[in-house]
Amino acid sequence: MALIKSISGIRGTIGGKTGETLSPVDIVKFTAAYGTILKKSADKQKKLKVVIGRDGRISGPMVSNLVAATLTALGIDVTDLGPSTTPTVEIAVPMEKANGGIILTASHNPKEWNALKLLNSSGEFISAALGKELLEIAEAENFDFAGVDKLGTVMPDDTYLQKHIDAILAYPLVNKAAIAKKNFKIVVDAINSTGALFVPALLKALGVEDIIVLNAAITGNFAHNPEPLPDHLSELSSAVVKEKASLGIAVDPDVDRLCFVNEDGSMFGEEYTLVAVADYVLSQRKGNTVSNMSSTKALKEITLKHGGQYYPSAVGEVNVVAKMKAVDAVIGGEGNGGVIVPDFHYGRDALIGIALFLSHLATQKGSIKSLRRQYPDYFISKNKIELDKGTDLPSIFAKIKQKYSKLPVNDEDGLKIEFDDDWVHLRMSNTEPIIRIYSESDYETKARNIAQKLMQDIKENM
Question: Is the separation of the CB atoms in 33 and 138 below 8 Å?
Answer without folding.
Answer: yes
